[in-house]
Amino acid sequence: MKFATSPETVLERLTALRAHDAPTHGGHVLSYVYDSGEPELDRLAGEAIRAMQPVNGLDPTTFGSVAALERDLVGFTRDLLGGDDEVVGTVTSGGTESCLLAVKTARDAWLAAHGLRPGEARPRLVLPTTAHAAFRKAAHYFGLETDLVPVTATGEVTAAAVAERVSGPAAHDVALVVVSAPSYPHAALDPVADVAAVAADAGVPVHVDACIGGMALPFWPDLPDWDLRVPGVTSLSVDLHKYGYAPKGVSVLLQRGRDRQRGQYFATTRWPGYPVVNPTLLGSRSGGPLAAAWAIVQALGHEGFAELAGRSRRATDALRDAVGAVEGLRVVGDPVGPLLAVATDDAVPAERRVDPHRWADAATAHGWVLQAQPAYSQEDGTRLPHTTHLTVTPVTESVLGELVPALEAAADAVRGEPRPDATALLAALPAAGAPADGVPGADPGTLDAETAAGLLGALGLDASRLGDDGPGVGPMAPLLAAVEALPAPMAERLLTELLARLVEPRRP
Protein backbone atom coordinates (compact mmCIF):
# COMPACT_ATOMS: atom_id res chain seq x y z
CA MET A 1 0.00 0.00 0.00
CA LYS A 2 1.20 3.51 -0.81
CA PHE A 3 0.91 5.90 2.15
CA ALA A 4 0.33 9.62 1.73
CA THR A 5 3.05 10.12 4.34
CA SER A 6 5.41 7.42 5.51
CA PRO A 7 4.64 5.97 8.96
CA GLU A 8 8.12 6.97 10.06
CA THR A 9 7.52 10.60 9.12
CA VAL A 10 4.15 10.57 10.83
CA LEU A 11 5.73 9.35 14.06
CA GLU A 12 8.44 11.98 13.77
CA ARG A 13 5.77 14.66 13.51
CA LEU A 14 3.95 13.23 16.51
CA THR A 15 7.15 13.24 18.53
CA ALA A 16 7.73 16.87 17.56
CA LEU A 17 4.24 17.83 18.70
CA ARG A 18 4.69 16.00 22.00
CA ALA A 19 7.90 17.90 22.60
CA HIS A 20 5.80 20.98 23.41
CA ASP A 21 3.73 19.21 26.06
CA ALA A 22 4.29 19.44 29.77
CA PRO A 23 6.34 16.42 30.91
CA THR A 24 4.17 13.49 31.94
CA HIS A 25 6.94 11.74 33.87
CA GLY A 26 9.49 12.83 36.40
CA GLY A 27 7.22 14.60 38.87
CA HIS A 28 7.39 18.13 37.42
CA VAL A 29 3.63 18.34 36.74
CA LEU A 30 1.62 18.31 39.97
CA SER A 31 -1.79 17.90 38.34
CA TYR A 32 -3.40 15.90 35.53
CA VAL A 33 -0.85 13.06 35.49
CA TYR A 34 -0.23 10.29 38.02
CA ASP A 35 3.31 8.99 37.78
CA SER A 36 4.11 5.90 39.79
CA GLY A 37 7.81 6.44 39.23
CA GLU A 38 8.06 2.84 38.06
CA PRO A 39 9.00 2.63 34.34
CA GLU A 40 8.19 -1.09 34.34
CA LEU A 41 4.53 -0.29 34.97
CA ASP A 42 4.48 2.01 31.95
CA ARG A 43 6.01 -0.70 29.81
CA LEU A 44 3.50 -3.25 31.08
CA ALA A 45 0.58 -0.90 30.40
CA GLY A 46 1.80 -0.23 26.88
CA GLU A 47 2.14 -3.92 26.08
CA ALA A 48 -1.30 -4.64 27.52
CA ILE A 49 -2.85 -1.90 25.37
CA ARG A 50 -1.13 -3.29 22.29
CA ALA A 51 -2.47 -6.78 23.04
CA MET A 52 -6.04 -5.46 23.27
CA GLN A 53 -5.75 -2.73 20.63
CA PRO A 54 -8.18 -4.27 18.08
CA VAL A 55 -10.75 -5.47 20.63
CA ASN A 56 -14.14 -3.76 20.82
CA GLY A 57 -15.58 -3.65 24.32
CA LEU A 58 -19.07 -3.21 22.89
CA ASP A 59 -19.80 -6.95 22.90
CA PRO A 60 -18.30 -9.17 25.62
CA THR A 61 -20.13 -12.16 24.12
CA THR A 62 -17.82 -11.85 21.10
CA PHE A 63 -14.74 -10.71 23.02
CA GLY A 64 -14.88 -12.68 26.25
CA SER A 65 -11.60 -11.17 27.42
CA VAL A 66 -13.42 -7.88 28.00
CA ALA A 67 -15.81 -9.54 30.45
CA ALA A 68 -12.99 -11.36 32.23
CA LEU A 69 -10.85 -8.22 32.67
CA GLU A 70 -13.79 -6.12 33.81
CA ARG A 71 -14.89 -8.80 36.26
CA ASP A 72 -11.44 -8.88 37.84
CA LEU A 73 -11.20 -5.09 38.13
CA VAL A 74 -14.64 -4.77 39.68
CA GLY A 75 -13.78 -7.55 42.12
CA PHE A 76 -10.48 -6.00 43.14
CA THR A 77 -11.91 -2.52 43.71
CA ARG A 78 -14.98 -3.89 45.48
CA ASP A 79 -12.83 -5.81 47.96
CA LEU A 80 -10.45 -2.87 48.44
CA LEU A 81 -13.32 -0.46 49.10
CA GLY A 82 -15.32 -2.53 51.55
CA GLY A 83 -18.01 -3.92 49.28
CA ASP A 84 -19.73 -7.25 49.85
CA ASP A 85 -21.36 -9.65 47.39
CA GLU A 86 -24.31 -7.27 47.07
CA VAL A 87 -22.04 -4.73 45.35
CA VAL A 88 -21.64 -4.95 41.58
CA GLY A 89 -19.94 -2.61 39.17
CA THR A 90 -18.91 -1.38 35.77
CA VAL A 91 -15.69 -0.18 34.21
CA THR A 92 -16.15 3.24 32.58
CA SER A 93 -14.06 5.62 30.49
CA GLY A 94 -13.22 7.86 33.44
CA GLY A 95 -14.42 9.61 36.55
CA THR A 96 -16.78 11.90 34.70
CA GLU A 97 -18.59 8.98 33.11
CA SER A 98 -18.77 7.17 36.45
CA CYS A 99 -20.31 10.25 38.07
CA LEU A 100 -22.73 10.75 35.17
CA LEU A 101 -23.91 7.17 35.42
CA ALA A 102 -24.33 7.36 39.19
CA VAL A 103 -26.54 10.42 38.78
CA LYS A 104 -28.51 8.96 35.88
CA THR A 105 -29.15 5.77 37.85
CA ALA A 106 -30.35 7.79 40.84
CA ARG A 107 -32.57 9.99 38.67
CA ASP A 108 -34.17 7.02 36.94
CA ALA A 109 -34.75 5.23 40.26
CA TRP A 110 -36.37 8.36 41.69
CA LEU A 111 -38.61 8.81 38.63
CA ALA A 112 -39.66 5.17 38.74
CA ALA A 113 -40.49 5.41 42.44
CA HIS A 114 -42.75 8.37 41.68
CA GLY A 115 -44.31 6.89 38.55
CA LEU A 116 -42.78 9.59 36.34
CA ARG A 117 -40.89 9.71 33.06
CA PRO A 118 -37.80 11.78 32.24
CA GLY A 119 -38.80 15.38 31.66
CA GLU A 120 -41.90 15.22 33.84
CA ALA A 121 -40.04 16.38 36.96
CA ARG A 122 -36.62 17.66 38.01
CA PRO A 123 -35.44 15.91 41.17
CA ARG A 124 -32.70 17.48 43.27
CA LEU A 125 -29.06 16.50 43.39
CA VAL A 126 -27.72 17.55 46.81
CA LEU A 127 -23.99 18.08 46.85
CA PRO A 128 -21.32 20.17 48.58
CA THR A 129 -20.00 23.16 46.67
CA THR A 130 -16.67 21.31 46.55
CA ALA A 131 -18.09 18.23 44.79
CA HIS A 132 -16.51 17.67 41.41
CA ALA A 133 -17.91 19.66 38.50
CA ALA A 134 -18.81 16.36 36.81
CA PHE A 135 -21.91 16.24 39.02
CA ARG A 136 -23.08 19.62 37.75
CA LYS A 137 -22.50 18.31 34.26
CA ALA A 138 -24.61 15.26 35.10
CA ALA A 139 -27.42 17.44 36.42
CA HIS A 140 -27.26 19.54 33.25
CA TYR A 141 -27.38 16.48 30.99
CA PHE A 142 -30.04 14.54 32.87
CA GLY A 143 -32.37 17.29 34.03
CA LEU A 144 -31.81 17.53 37.79
CA GLU A 145 -31.69 20.61 39.99
CA THR A 146 -28.37 21.09 41.76
CA ASP A 147 -28.81 21.93 45.44
CA LEU A 148 -25.38 23.20 46.52
CA VAL A 149 -24.55 22.92 50.21
CA PRO A 150 -21.93 25.38 51.53
CA VAL A 151 -18.84 23.88 53.12
CA THR A 152 -16.77 25.05 56.06
CA ALA A 153 -13.71 27.24 55.74
CA THR A 154 -11.60 24.07 55.70
CA GLY A 155 -13.62 22.55 52.87
CA GLU A 156 -15.81 19.89 54.49
CA VAL A 157 -19.57 19.71 54.29
CA THR A 158 -21.37 19.04 57.58
CA ALA A 159 -24.06 16.44 58.14
CA ALA A 160 -26.23 19.13 59.73
CA ALA A 161 -26.07 21.22 56.56
CA VAL A 162 -27.05 18.23 54.45
CA ALA A 163 -29.86 17.36 56.88
CA GLU A 164 -31.44 20.75 56.22
CA ARG A 165 -31.75 19.79 52.54
CA VAL A 166 -33.07 16.24 52.96
CA SER A 167 -35.01 16.06 56.22
CA GLY A 168 -38.79 15.87 56.43
CA PRO A 169 -40.78 17.03 53.40
CA ALA A 170 -37.54 18.28 51.80
CA ALA A 171 -36.53 14.66 51.12
CA HIS A 172 -39.40 14.14 48.69
CA ASP A 173 -37.64 15.43 45.58
CA VAL A 174 -34.03 14.41 46.36
CA ALA A 175 -32.65 11.77 44.01
CA LEU A 176 -29.11 11.58 45.39
CA VAL A 177 -26.69 13.06 47.93
CA VAL A 178 -23.02 13.29 46.95
CA VAL A 179 -19.99 13.36 49.25
CA SER A 180 -16.28 13.36 48.41
CA ALA A 181 -13.42 11.20 49.58
CA PRO A 182 -11.65 13.53 49.38
CA SER A 183 -12.79 16.61 47.46
CA TYR A 184 -10.49 17.69 44.66
CA PRO A 185 -10.22 21.44 45.42
CA HIS A 186 -8.98 21.20 49.04
CA ALA A 187 -8.47 17.47 49.75
CA ALA A 188 -11.17 17.60 52.42
CA LEU A 189 -12.69 14.28 53.46
CA ASP A 190 -16.42 14.78 53.88
CA PRO A 191 -18.02 13.08 56.93
CA VAL A 192 -19.36 10.17 54.90
CA ALA A 193 -20.81 8.14 57.76
CA ASP A 194 -22.62 11.10 59.33
CA VAL A 195 -24.06 12.26 56.00
CA ALA A 196 -25.06 8.71 55.05
CA ALA A 197 -26.90 8.30 58.35
CA VAL A 198 -28.85 11.52 57.79
CA ALA A 199 -29.66 10.51 54.22
CA ALA A 200 -30.67 6.99 55.20
CA ASP A 201 -33.13 8.36 57.74
CA ALA A 202 -34.67 10.37 54.90
CA GLY A 203 -34.64 7.41 52.50
CA VAL A 204 -32.17 9.12 50.15
CA PRO A 205 -29.26 7.27 48.47
CA VAL A 206 -25.67 8.47 48.83
CA HIS A 207 -22.84 8.44 46.30
CA VAL A 208 -19.21 8.65 47.43
CA ASP A 209 -17.00 10.30 44.85
CA ALA A 210 -13.67 8.59 45.51
CA CYS A 211 -12.42 9.13 41.97
CA ILE A 212 -9.18 10.71 43.14
CA GLY A 213 -8.83 9.07 46.54
CA GLY A 214 -10.26 5.60 46.11
CA MET A 215 -6.99 3.84 45.28
CA ALA A 216 -4.96 5.76 47.88
CA LEU A 217 -7.12 6.31 50.97
CA PRO A 218 -7.40 2.56 51.79
CA PHE A 219 -3.71 2.84 52.71
CA TRP A 220 -3.96 6.16 54.58
CA PRO A 221 -3.78 5.77 58.37
CA ASP A 222 -6.35 6.78 60.98
CA LEU A 223 -9.29 7.65 58.74
CA PRO A 224 -12.96 7.27 59.69
CA ASP A 225 -15.00 4.91 57.56
CA TRP A 226 -15.70 6.53 54.18
CA ASP A 227 -16.30 3.75 51.64
CA LEU A 228 -18.80 0.93 51.02
CA ARG A 229 -18.44 -0.23 54.61
CA VAL A 230 -20.63 2.73 55.57
CA PRO A 231 -24.36 1.82 55.79
CA GLY A 232 -26.37 4.00 53.46
CA VAL A 233 -23.69 4.40 50.79
CA THR A 234 -25.35 3.13 47.61
CA SER A 235 -22.65 3.86 45.02
CA LEU A 236 -19.00 4.80 44.79
CA SER A 237 -16.73 5.90 41.95
CA VAL A 238 -12.97 5.28 41.80
CA ASP A 239 -10.54 6.11 39.01
CA LEU A 240 -7.89 3.61 38.03
CA HIS A 241 -6.12 6.16 35.83
CA LYS A 242 -5.27 8.20 38.92
CA TYR A 243 -3.76 6.29 41.82
CA GLY A 244 -4.30 3.03 39.98
CA TYR A 245 -1.57 4.34 37.61
CA ALA A 246 -3.33 3.13 34.46
CA PRO A 247 -3.36 5.21 31.27
CA LYS A 248 -6.45 7.36 30.78
CA GLY A 249 -9.24 6.64 30.72
CA VAL A 250 -10.50 3.93 33.03
CA SER A 251 -12.67 4.19 36.14
CA VAL A 252 -14.99 1.91 38.10
CA LEU A 253 -18.52 2.66 39.28
CA LEU A 254 -19.63 0.38 42.11
CA GLN A 255 -23.33 0.13 42.99
CA ARG A 256 -25.03 -1.57 45.91
CA GLY A 257 -27.68 -3.94 44.58
CA ARG A 258 -28.09 -5.65 41.24
CA ASP A 259 -31.50 -4.17 40.60
CA ARG A 260 -30.24 -0.65 41.13
CA GLN A 261 -27.23 -1.22 38.90
CA ARG A 262 -29.30 -2.75 36.11
CA GLY A 263 -31.13 0.55 35.86
CA GLN A 264 -27.85 2.03 34.69
CA TYR A 265 -28.02 0.03 31.45
CA PHE A 266 -29.48 1.13 28.13
CA ALA A 267 -30.99 -1.70 26.08
CA THR A 268 -33.05 -1.77 22.90
CA THR A 269 -34.13 -4.31 20.32
CA ARG A 270 -36.34 -1.73 18.61
CA TRP A 271 -34.37 -1.19 15.45
CA PRO A 272 -33.40 -3.47 12.54
CA GLY A 273 -29.79 -3.85 13.63
CA TYR A 274 -28.16 -5.92 16.34
CA PRO A 275 -29.59 -5.79 19.88
CA VAL A 276 -27.92 -2.90 21.73
CA VAL A 277 -27.15 -3.35 25.43
CA ASN A 278 -24.79 -0.75 26.92
CA PRO A 279 -23.82 -0.52 30.60
CA THR A 280 -22.12 2.84 29.98
CA LEU A 281 -22.69 5.99 27.95
CA LEU A 282 -20.33 4.69 25.29
CA GLY A 283 -21.17 1.94 22.84
CA SER A 284 -17.90 0.84 21.28
CA ARG A 285 -15.20 0.95 23.92
CA SER A 286 -11.47 0.50 23.63
CA GLY A 287 -10.12 -2.55 25.38
CA GLY A 288 -6.76 -0.83 25.79
CA PRO A 289 -7.16 1.15 29.02
CA LEU A 290 -9.16 -1.73 30.51
CA ALA A 291 -6.31 -4.14 29.78
CA ALA A 292 -3.68 -1.72 31.06
CA ALA A 293 -5.53 -1.22 34.34
CA TRP A 294 -6.03 -4.96 34.73
CA ALA A 295 -2.35 -5.67 34.07
CA ILE A 296 -1.21 -3.09 36.62
CA VAL A 297 -3.62 -4.41 39.26
CA GLN A 298 -2.40 -7.95 38.63
CA ALA A 299 1.24 -6.88 38.84
CA LEU A 300 0.97 -4.69 41.94
CA GLY A 301 -1.69 -6.36 44.02
CA HIS A 302 -2.65 -4.99 47.41
CA GLU A 303 0.93 -4.79 48.68
CA GLY A 304 2.19 -2.93 45.63
CA PHE A 305 -0.51 -0.30 45.86
CA ALA A 306 0.21 0.05 49.58
CA GLU A 307 3.90 0.68 48.89
CA LEU A 308 3.17 3.32 46.25
CA ALA A 309 0.60 4.99 48.50
CA GLY A 310 3.25 5.12 51.20
CA ARG A 311 5.56 7.04 48.89
CA SER A 312 2.79 9.50 48.05
CA ARG A 313 1.92 9.92 51.73
CA ARG A 314 5.51 10.67 52.75
CA ALA A 315 5.88 13.15 49.90
CA THR A 316 2.58 14.82 50.79
CA ASP A 317 3.60 15.19 54.43
CA ALA A 318 6.94 16.66 53.39
CA LEU A 319 5.34 19.14 51.01
CA ARG A 320 2.72 20.12 53.55
CA ASP A 321 5.45 20.90 56.08
CA ALA A 322 7.60 22.71 53.52
CA VAL A 323 4.80 24.88 52.12
CA GLY A 324 3.49 25.58 55.61
CA ALA A 325 6.91 26.94 56.53
CA VAL A 326 6.95 29.40 53.61
CA GLU A 327 6.15 32.89 54.87
CA GLY A 328 3.05 34.25 53.17
CA LEU A 329 1.48 30.91 52.24
CA ARG A 330 -0.74 28.45 54.12
CA VAL A 331 -2.10 24.99 53.45
CA VAL A 332 -5.89 25.02 53.40
CA GLY A 333 -7.61 22.96 56.09
CA ASP A 334 -6.52 19.46 57.04
CA PRO A 335 -5.95 17.72 53.69
CA VAL A 336 -6.53 13.98 53.45
CA GLY A 337 -4.83 11.92 50.79
CA PRO A 338 -2.08 12.76 48.29
CA LEU A 339 -3.15 16.30 47.40
CA LEU A 340 -3.39 19.72 48.99
CA ALA A 341 -4.37 23.31 48.28
CA VAL A 342 -2.35 26.41 49.13
CA ALA A 343 -3.73 29.90 49.83
CA THR A 344 -2.34 33.27 50.88
CA ASP A 345 -1.59 33.57 54.58
CA ASP A 346 -3.59 36.67 55.49
CA ALA A 347 -2.16 36.60 59.01
CA VAL A 348 1.11 38.15 57.86
CA PRO A 349 1.55 41.77 56.70
CA ALA A 350 0.52 42.47 53.11
CA GLU A 351 4.10 43.04 52.01
CA ARG A 352 5.01 39.52 53.17
CA ARG A 353 2.07 37.68 51.61
CA VAL A 354 2.39 35.38 48.62
CA ASP A 355 -0.40 35.22 46.08
CA PRO A 356 -0.85 31.52 45.24
CA HIS A 357 -1.51 32.16 41.54
CA ARG A 358 1.58 34.33 41.12
CA TRP A 359 3.43 31.64 43.05
CA ALA A 360 2.21 28.99 40.60
CA ASP A 361 3.33 31.11 37.65
CA ALA A 362 6.74 31.60 39.25
CA ALA A 363 7.01 27.86 39.88
CA THR A 364 6.33 27.27 36.18
CA ALA A 365 9.30 29.49 35.39
CA HIS A 366 11.36 27.14 37.58
CA GLY A 367 10.12 24.10 35.61
CA TRP A 368 7.24 22.92 37.83
CA VAL A 369 3.56 22.95 36.87
CA LEU A 370 1.02 23.66 39.63
CA GLN A 371 -2.73 24.16 39.16
CA ALA A 372 -4.40 27.50 39.88
CA GLN A 373 -7.95 27.43 41.28
CA PRO A 374 -10.25 30.50 41.47
CA ALA A 375 -12.02 31.72 44.57
CA TYR A 376 -15.64 30.68 45.01
CA SER A 377 -18.52 32.51 46.67
CA GLN A 378 -21.04 30.24 48.41
CA GLU A 379 -24.75 30.93 48.75
CA ASP A 380 -24.41 31.64 52.48
CA GLY A 381 -22.11 34.56 51.71
CA THR A 382 -18.85 32.86 52.66
CA ARG A 383 -16.04 32.83 50.14
CA LEU A 384 -13.55 30.05 49.59
CA PRO A 385 -10.15 31.59 48.79
CA HIS A 386 -8.32 31.34 45.50
CA THR A 387 -5.72 28.61 45.79
CA THR A 388 -3.07 26.60 44.02
CA HIS A 389 -3.57 22.85 43.91
CA LEU A 390 -0.83 20.21 44.15
CA THR A 391 -1.43 16.58 43.25
CA VAL A 392 1.28 14.40 44.79
CA THR A 393 2.30 11.06 43.27
CA PRO A 394 4.82 8.39 44.26
CA VAL A 395 7.49 9.89 42.02
CA THR A 396 7.25 13.18 43.95
CA GLU A 397 9.16 11.65 46.83
CA SER A 398 12.21 11.22 44.61
CA VAL A 399 12.26 14.87 43.46
CA LEU A 400 11.59 16.64 46.77
CA GLY A 401 15.21 17.81 46.86
CA GLU A 402 14.57 19.84 43.70
CA LEU A 403 10.91 20.67 44.19
CA VAL A 404 10.99 22.20 47.67
CA PRO A 405 13.78 24.71 46.90
CA ALA A 406 12.00 25.63 43.65
CA LEU A 407 8.74 26.31 45.53
CA GLU A 408 10.60 28.38 48.11
CA ALA A 409 12.39 30.36 45.41
CA ALA A 410 9.12 30.94 43.56
CA ALA A 411 7.56 32.33 46.73
CA ASP A 412 10.55 34.59 47.33
CA ALA A 413 10.26 35.90 43.76
CA VAL A 414 6.65 37.08 44.13
CA ARG A 415 6.33 37.84 47.84
CA GLY A 416 4.50 41.10 48.36
CA GLU A 417 3.20 41.29 44.79
CA PRO A 418 -0.57 41.85 44.78
CA ARG A 419 -2.96 39.93 42.59
CA PRO A 420 -3.38 41.23 39.05
CA ASP A 421 -5.82 44.15 38.98
CA ALA A 422 -8.96 42.52 37.62
CA THR A 423 -10.70 45.87 37.48
CA ALA A 424 -8.12 47.17 35.02
CA LEU A 425 -8.31 43.97 33.01
CA LEU A 426 -12.07 44.17 32.72
CA ALA A 427 -12.01 47.86 31.92
CA ALA A 428 -9.91 46.97 28.88
CA LEU A 429 -12.69 44.79 27.50
CA PRO A 430 -14.56 46.47 24.69
CA ALA A 431 -18.29 46.75 25.36
CA ALA A 432 -20.14 43.96 23.57
CA GLY A 433 -23.65 44.98 24.45
CA ALA A 434 -25.53 45.58 27.65
CA PRO A 435 -23.36 45.33 30.77
CA ALA A 436 -23.91 42.31 33.01
CA ASP A 437 -23.78 43.23 36.68
CA GLY A 438 -21.77 46.32 35.78
CA VAL A 439 -19.14 44.31 33.91
CA PRO A 440 -18.58 45.05 30.22
CA GLY A 441 -19.89 42.37 27.91
CA ALA A 442 -23.12 41.14 26.44
CA ASP A 443 -25.50 38.48 27.60
CA PRO A 444 -23.29 35.38 27.23
CA GLY A 445 -26.23 33.43 25.86
CA THR A 446 -26.27 35.68 22.79
CA LEU A 447 -22.54 36.29 22.47
CA ASP A 448 -21.38 35.14 19.01
CA ALA A 449 -18.04 33.44 18.44
CA GLU A 450 -16.30 36.41 16.82
CA THR A 451 -17.28 38.81 19.59
CA ALA A 452 -16.17 36.29 22.21
CA ALA A 453 -12.82 35.94 20.44
CA GLY A 454 -12.45 39.71 20.47
CA LEU A 455 -13.06 39.81 24.21
CA LEU A 456 -10.44 37.11 24.68
CA GLY A 457 -8.01 39.20 22.67
CA ALA A 458 -8.65 42.15 24.97
CA LEU A 459 -7.54 39.90 27.82
CA GLY A 460 -4.39 39.03 25.89
CA LEU A 461 -5.54 35.58 24.81
CA ASP A 462 -5.35 34.77 21.11
CA ALA A 463 -6.40 31.15 20.69
CA SER A 464 -5.18 31.06 17.08
CA ARG A 465 -1.60 31.41 18.36
CA LEU A 466 -1.78 29.00 21.27
CA GLY A 467 -0.61 25.40 21.43
CA ASP A 468 2.23 25.52 18.89
CA ASP A 469 5.20 26.71 20.89
CA GLY A 470 4.60 25.16 24.28
CA PRO A 471 2.05 24.10 26.86
CA GLY A 472 -0.40 26.41 28.49
CA VAL A 473 -1.72 29.87 27.66
CA GLY A 474 0.85 31.90 29.58
CA PRO A 475 0.64 33.26 33.12
CA MET A 476 -2.48 32.04 34.86
CA ALA A 477 -2.76 34.74 37.54
CA PRO A 478 -4.21 37.42 35.22
CA LEU A 479 -6.61 34.95 33.57
CA LEU A 480 -7.88 33.60 36.90
CA ALA A 481 -8.32 37.13 38.25
CA ALA A 482 -10.49 37.94 35.24
CA VAL A 483 -12.42 34.67 35.60
CA GLU A 484 -13.25 35.55 39.21
CA ALA A 485 -14.30 39.11 38.38
CA LEU A 486 -16.57 38.22 35.48
CA PRO A 487 -20.07 36.89 36.06
CA ALA A 488 -19.80 33.10 35.87
CA PRO A 489 -21.86 32.74 32.65
CA MET A 490 -19.60 35.24 30.86
CA ALA A 491 -16.40 33.58 32.12
CA GLU A 492 -17.72 30.21 31.03
CA ARG A 493 -18.62 31.54 27.57
CA LEU A 494 -15.17 33.02 27.04
CA LEU A 495 -13.36 29.90 28.26
CA THR A 496 -15.54 27.82 25.95
CA GLU A 497 -14.48 30.00 23.03
CA LEU A 498 -10.82 29.71 24.02
CA LEU A 499 -10.87 25.93 24.18
CA ALA A 500 -12.99 25.55 21.05
CA ARG A 501 -10.64 27.69 18.97
CA LEU A 502 -7.59 25.75 20.15
CA VAL A 503 -8.73 22.73 18.12
CA GLU A 504 -10.09 24.49 15.05
CA PRO A 505 -8.20 23.68 11.82
CA ARG A 506 -5.66 26.33 10.81
CA ARG A 507 -4.48 27.37 7.37
CA PRO A 508 -0.71 27.56 6.86
Describe this structure in words.
This protein has 508 residues and is α/β, with parallel strands linked by helices. The chain contains 15 helices and 15 strands. The chain has a seven-stranded mixed sheet with strand order 1-7-6-5-4-2-3, sandwiched between helices. Strands 10-11-15-12 form a four-stranded antiparallel sheet. A two-stranded antiparallel sheet has the order 8-9. Helix 13 packs across helix 15.
SSE blueprint:
Blueprint: H1 7-18, H2 39-52, H3 64-80, E1 87-92, H4 95-113, E2 124-128, H5 133-142, E3 145-149, H6 159-166, E4 174-180, H7 192-201, E5 206-209, E6 233-239, E7 251-256, H8 258-262, E8 266-268, E9 276-278, H9 288-324, E10 329-331, E11 339-344, H10 356-365, E12 371-373, E13 376-377, E14 383-384, E15 387-391, H11 400-414, H12 422-427, H13 449-458, H14 476-485, H15 488-502
Parallel strand pairs: 2-3, 2-4, 4-5, 5-6
Antiparallel strand pairs: 1-7, 6-7, 8-9, 10-11, 11-15, 12-15, 13-14
Helix pairs in contact: 2-9, 3-9, 4-5, 6-7, 9-11, 10-11, 13-15
